[in-house]
Amino acid sequence: MNEESKTYQNIICTFCGALCDDIEIKVKNNKIENIKNACAISRKKYEHAQKDRTVPQIKGKEVKYNKAVSAAAEILSSSRNPLIYGLSSTTAEAQKAAVELAEKCGANIDSTSSVCHGPGTLAKQLVGMVSATLGEVKNRSDMMIFWGANPVEAHPNHAKRYSILSQGMYRKNRKDREIIVFDVRKTPTAKLADHFFQVKPNSDFEILMALQMLVSGRTPTSEDGRIGGIELVKLKDLAEKMKKVKYGSVFYGMGLTMSRGKYMNTWAAMSLVRNLNDYGRFVMIPMRGHGNVAGSEITMAWQTGYPFAVNFSRNYPRYNPGEFSAVDLLARREVDAAFIIASDPAASLPHEAAEYLKKIPTIVLDPHWNLTTEIADVVIPSAVKGIGASGTVYRMDHVPLQLRKFLDDSWPDDASAVSRIGELIEND
Amino acid sequence: MADKRSFTLITGRTIKQGMASVSGKNNQNYEDSTAYVELNENILEEYNLSEGKKILLYTDSGEVELSCKKGDLPEEIVFIPYGPQANKLIGTDTDGTGMPSSKGKKVMIKRKEGEDS
C-alpha cells in the first residue's frame, strides 16, 4: 500500500554525545525519504539505518530469533566469569536490564566508557567536576577552551548548536567568545580557534599544573622558558585571561584521557577549573563520543553505585578499573564468555584484547553487522535506537532525552532482548 | 631505510572515519578511512616516501603495514585514525585504569623494501 509521506520534527540523532535533537525526517512506506539538519556523519547514519541489518545467527547459520536468545542465555548461565560489554549506543532501559542480567549471572559489566572518558570519571571521583548544561555554556560562556578534543570531526554540529558558532542568549555569535584549543596537532577545530597552543605529546599534566600555579600567582620554573612545548610567557597571559573572563568553559576529549597520566590529566584540569571559580564562573564538559555513553555511566551508577568496570561475582557490586574493565579482563584472559551489546570491540579495542573474543563464546546484540558480529558465536538482531526503538539517552552534559520511534522495525529492542535472556537464566 | 628514530603515535577521529563507521563496518570505505598513516611532509621526504606508499609501523605491542599520507603534523607525530589497524599498535596495559595508551605511544617506522618513492 502506498502511504502518504509524513515528516517527523525534532528527532534525536544518537550518533554522538551531542545528541542533536533538531533532525527532521520525512518517511514514506516505512522508509526514510529525506533528512534535514543532520551533520555529515548523522546523514550517513540515517542513510544506512535500514541497510546491512543483522539476522539471528548461531555459529554463522541463520536461526529463529528465540533460538539465538536461548543460545545466549545458555552461554551466560554456563559461564563461570562472563563479561557484559558495550552499552554506549543503547538506551538507559537496555543498560538497566544489562545490569540486572550481570547480577543474575555474576558477570563483569563494563561500558566503552572505560576506553574513552573513564579516566575523566575516575578524576571526578577524586576531585569533583564543576559542570553545566550545554545550553548554559552556549548562552553565557565568553571563553571556550577545547583541550584534546576535535568536535569539528567527532561532533560536527557541536560548534553550531552549543559552542563556537552558536547563537546564545547573551553570547550571540563567534565574536562574543574567545576560542582556545590545546592539542598535539593542528586539528580542524584548532583552525577555528583564536589561540592554538600546540602541546608536546604526553605533556598535558605539566601544562595544566603550570596553569594552576600561574592562576594562584606562582610561576613555575623552566630552563628553556617552555612548559610542555608552550612558551611560559604565553601560559602566563592565558592564566591572567582565565581569571578575568566572566564565564569560562573547558570541553575536554581523549587527548587528556588517553595520553600519559590519563586520569591525572583530567584531575589536573578539574582542579584548575575548580580554582578558577574563585574569580569567575568556569565549567567543564567531557566531549562524550557515543550517543549514550554518558547514560551508561549514569545508569550503572544509579543501579550499582559505580559508573563502569563492575563485577558481580560475589553477588554484590565491586568496582575496580584495571581489574574489572574490559581491556584488562580480555588481555588477562580472565573471562570465559562475552556478551557485547551495541558496540564493536573487534574494531575499537587493542588488537590483543579483541582477538581473545575469538577464543571464548561471544554473543553480539546489534542492529547492524560489524567486525565483532563476524567473530561472534551468537548474533541477536535488534531495532535501531531512535529510529525503530524508543528509550532514554543522556547527552554529554547529562541531560536526559527521550528517543521517539518513527519506523517499524523487524526486531525487538535491546532492552527486550536483554530482559528476555535474564528471564531465561532465572527460570532455568 | 630503517633506523632507531622513534615517533609519537596519536590515534584519533576523522570525519571520514566517522562517516564510514556508520555506513557499514564491512564496507571498503571503512577500511580505506582507517588503514593509513599521516606523517609530516619532511618525514615523507626524509624516508623517500610519497603519498600512497606503504610503510611498516611497529611498537612494543605489534606492527602494521599502512599507506602514507601527508598530514599537518609536527615532525615527531604520526597519526592513524581509530580502527582495527591502529589498534594493532596499541597495547593492553591500562596502568590500572581500564584505558589503554591510545595516544602518545612510541612508534618506529620502516620503509618497506622494494617500495619506490
Q: Any key phrases for this structure?
A:
heterodimer; A: 428 residues; alpha/beta; Rossmann fold; Dimethylsulfoxide Reductase, domain 2; 2 domains; nine-stranded mixed β-sheet; five-stranded parallel β-sheet; 21 strands; 34% helix; 20% strand; globular; B: 117 residues; Barwin-like endoglucanases; six-stranded mixed β-sheet; 3 helices
Please provide a brief summary of the model.
The complex is a heterodimer of chains A (428) and B (117). Chain A has 16 helices and 21 strands.
Summarize the helices and strands and which ones pair or pack.
The complex is a heterodimer of chains A (428) and B (117).
Chain A lengths: L5 E6 L11 E6 L2 E6 L3 H9 L8 E2 L2 E2 L2 H14 L3 E5 L5 H13 L3 E4 L6 H10 L6 H7 L2 E5 L3 H4 L3 H4 L16 E6 L11 E4 L5 H12 L10 E2 L2 E2 H13 L2 E6 L1 H4 L5 H14 L4 E6 L6 H12 L5 E2 L6 E2 L6 H6 L5 E5 L3 H4 L2 H6 L5 E4 L12 E3 L10 E4 L5 E4 L10 H13 L2
Parallel strand pairs in A: 6-7, 6-17, 8-9, 8-13, 9-10, 13-14, 17-18, 18-19
Antiparallel strand pairs in A: 1-2, 2-3, 4-5, 4-19, 7-15, 11-12, 15-16, 20-21
Helix pairs in contact in A: 2-16, 3-12, 3-16, 4-11, 8-9, 8-11
Chain B lengths: L1 E11 L2 H7 L6 H7 L1 E4 L1 H6 L7 E5 L4 E8 L6 E5 L21 E9 L6
Parallel strand pairs in B: 1-5, 2-4
Antiparallel strand pairs in B: 1-6, 3-4, 3-6
